[in-house]
């Protein structure tokens, strides 16, 4: 019973020395396994070291399988773990290798293990990063409607511009179909600009210029949305109220009220 | 008479169950019709399924025609609807297909139906999105002058840089004329960078480098304009109205109207 | 004497009806002359309409010459006008055509006339645009040091990265010399990305990836500088102090103090 | 003894006339040496002027060697200087030329001298630029966690998207391996968009469109982070120090220290 609890601490928590070592080793193995997938995809390397890479992949998958089984066995409520975010990711990290026995190429999906790197935040000073992440998420969530309205306008613009360019330039200039035109419009509006398709006619270049200037200018809109939301979030993060003077806009690290010097909380 | 009112509720409003079903069906048909236009423009698909697509297009156009007629017949003041924003868009959504009987290719303009997707905001919680949209629009309207000054400077810069590059690089390096030079300047300044035209001489590359750094840095200007305006707007989200002069853009911490000095709320 | 004063009003001021007509005509002629330069540079058009364009160019230059002479003759202190910003631009607008009698191709410099379009702000509600322009300029001026520090870091980074890429990729992959490498670094860092030169080796692509992520992230720095400066500028624009409660952060359009309702001068 | 102190003032300080002249000369020599490295790398120039450039390089390296030796000899605590940031840079500025006697091509590393240009801030009004630099650095340091979380998400996204594109497009469309796919994902997400690799299949172009829109939108996140941090930093430009606990980052409207509750100023 005690051994099980000890194991639980090592595997699920990062406070004890053993837990820390376990977490760091796990991260290193995850990193190794991601590099492995990449190397395997490079033809020159894959040809030469096929066997070594293959063995390593199975070793790592074995470790992950054991780890996953342990987690399921040790945890008090296995069902809750299995269907939690981390539980699903842990399972998905194991499956691709087994799947590759049946489906060729599917083992590249192992790259999904990258998400397991999220565990890195457990080793770092957890709270500060969780707070940072939560603040980011809150700012994005709060500006949900504005971002939706913005994206809707962009998609509408892209649909119409893409079709117009298809009509103006036509298949002979690389705009083979309306979807291609829309693809070009997105490439241009987001200022990516591959150049694999680009307008050749004067009219097309003029319309493209308009699209670019618009795309260049409207980047200001999401930026403005997120920034103003972040400023508001970072300001109203702290809900403490000074018991003495009722001032309520304290910084996160405030211990005393900056207005009257009274202790807060 | 009652039937007419019921129909009015279904077609024009989104509160009742019938109205909601009507609006969602309409959105799905609009989406289907946009996908239809796209598919028709892909040569491989268009060749194979010409007949099916053609029939579908006429069916959808039929539905839209009926819908438009109903709207005109049911509404109390038809003229007001016909010349309203939505009225014009609804008409434009129908015309291209009929036009295609006379002008080849014009049915691609059906893509204008994308604007009808705006109705999606009627089904979603309307108020929050309208507010978000109105705030965005207000921020952009308020920074009108600054954006105009900014765009004016950019256009001036682009005109002069484009001409200089035409003189430096010349037609032998792809800068065939001054308009081409200006097109290149816009492509570069907005950081799109297709690469279909790019400077070859050392002088040209040096000038291009300057343009890029300037283009990269001045994106900060519209962003700053819109962001600072949005922060101001979000601050004055206050909905209080001065009982004396009816001014309605008060700061959150306002106690007296800044326009007439009357006490608010 | 009276005629001279009347002429002065028409030419130099935009308040009277005559002045407005004069300014608008001038703007249209400037626009026409810019379009003229562009058309002349397009080989197909230039070949066909050489004579018409040539005549038009001389007519417009004639008009500008007369206008410039009138300005010099009418103004009270000719020297002050001649060496003012507008005076120099007005002269430069005339010179290229005369110069083209001696130097081939120099008449393209006529494009400098674009700067004359600045006069458009005289016709528009002058004050609001001047204020907008001045606020923009002030925000940029105030963040001078930060922008300098930022640009210095960017140039340093670009110099070092450009040289490294030259050493890594070498002339065989298009990085012909260190200046070329630096040109590539600027093209990449500013996210323009022509693709005329791009890394081919794995090491080069890895370094390039780093540069891109850095370039993508540090755009946040000038944006942050300008935005925070603009917010500060727009806030502290008004230096009025309420005589009653000494509150000093009034909006630009405030007539009464929003805190105590007292009139602010 | 006095001579040594005088020399110290000239070399290490920029207040006296001698010190200023020394610093400016040094800057010019550094600039000359950077231009030298660039010219040497251009084949056409290098061939013609090989001897001149070679001699100049050794002259400049000689000057720098003398300068470095003087600095070491004159300074009171040589060890502290040698291992300081500037000491290491000064040494690195000299080494490449000597190294080039043994390793071919290594003299291009001379470009590291660019970092020595940092001395320019010593000549300019030092304080304002140091302050600007420190504020920038502080804003970036304060938003460390948020930027880390952001970069982590971006890297994760890039890994997964890169692999997916490798599976979708495959080597026949230029996605030769997973690292290449990741390289493409970075090029696209950062809106650089070389176009040396670009998706050819419909599925690939659809996924690419998603990536572009995401990349275009999330630039708002680092911008928001840095901007909101800068606004906060510029607000707390307050230089007051708490007499009790020496905390020095008070808000402008602070009356009591928020850390210990002691009255400030």
Write up what this structure looks like.
4 copies of one chain form a homotetramer. Chain A is an all-alpha fold. Chain A folds into 2 domains: about 1-130, Voltage-gated potassium channels. Chain C (Four Helix Bundle (Hemerythrin (Met), subunit A), Up-down Bundle), CATH 1.20.120; about 145-235, Helix Hairpins. Chain A has helices at about 1-10, 15-40, 45-50, 50-75, 80, 85-90, 95-100, 120-125, 125-140, 145-170, 180-190, 200-220, 220-235. In chain A, helix 1 crosses helix 2 (about 15-40), helix 2 packs antiparallel against helix 4 (about 50-75) and helix 9 packs across helix 13.
Radius of gyration of chain A: 27 Å
CATH topology name of the largest domain in chain A, in short, is Four Helix Bundle (Hemerythrin (Met), subunit A)
Task: Give the N-to-C terminal Cα separation of chain A.
Answer: 41 Å
What's the total count of β strands of chain A?
0
Q: Report strand % of chain A.
A: under 5%
The main pleated sheet of chain A reads as:
none
Helix-strand pattern of chain A: HHHHHHHHHHHHH
Low-confidence stretches of chain A: none
Any idea what the CATH architecture of the largest domain in chain A is?
Up-down Bundle
Q: What's the CATH class of the largest domain in chain A, please? A: Mainly Alpha
Classify the oligomer: homotetramer
- The CATH superfamily of the largest domain in chain A is identified as Voltage-gated potassium channels. Chain C
The overall pLDDT of chain A, averaged over residues, is 81
> Structural class per helix/strand content of chain A?
mainly alpha
**How many DSSP H or I helices of chain A?**
13
> How much helical structure, as a percent, in the residues of chain A?
55-70%
């Amino acid at each position: 019973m005690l051994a099980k609890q000890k194991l639980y601490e090592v595997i699920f928590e990062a406070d004890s020395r053993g837990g820390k070592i376990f977490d760091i080793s796990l991260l290193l193995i995850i990193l190794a396994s991601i590099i492995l997938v990449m190397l395997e995809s490079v033809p020159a390397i894959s040809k030469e070291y096929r066997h070594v890479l293959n063995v390593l992949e199975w070793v790592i998958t074995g470790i992950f399988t054991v780890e996953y089984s342990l987690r399921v066995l040790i945890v008090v409520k296995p069902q809750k773990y299995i269907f939690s975010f981390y539980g699903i990711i842990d399972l998905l990290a194991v499956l691709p290798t087994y799947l590759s026995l049946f489906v060729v190429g599917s083992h590249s999906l192992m790259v999904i293990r990258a998400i397991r790197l999220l565990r890195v935040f457990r080793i770092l000073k957890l709270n500060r990063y969780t707070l940072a992440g939560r603040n980011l998420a809150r700012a994005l969530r709060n500006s949900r409607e504005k971002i939706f309205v913005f994206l809707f306008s962009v998609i509408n613009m892209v649909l119409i511009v893409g079709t117009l360019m298809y009509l103006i330039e036509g298949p002979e200039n690389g705009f083979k179909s309306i979807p291609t035109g829309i693809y070009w419009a997105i490439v241009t509006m987001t200022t990516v600009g591959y150049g694999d398709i680009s307008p050749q006619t004067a009219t097309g270049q003029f319309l493209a210029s308009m699209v670019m200037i618009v795309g260049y200018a409207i980047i200001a809109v999401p930026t403005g949305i997120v920034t103003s939301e972040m400023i508001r979030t970072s300001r109203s993060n702290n809900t403490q109220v000074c018991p003495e003077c009722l001032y309520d806009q304290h910084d996160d690290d405030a211990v005393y009220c900056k207005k009257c010097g009274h202790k807060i909380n």
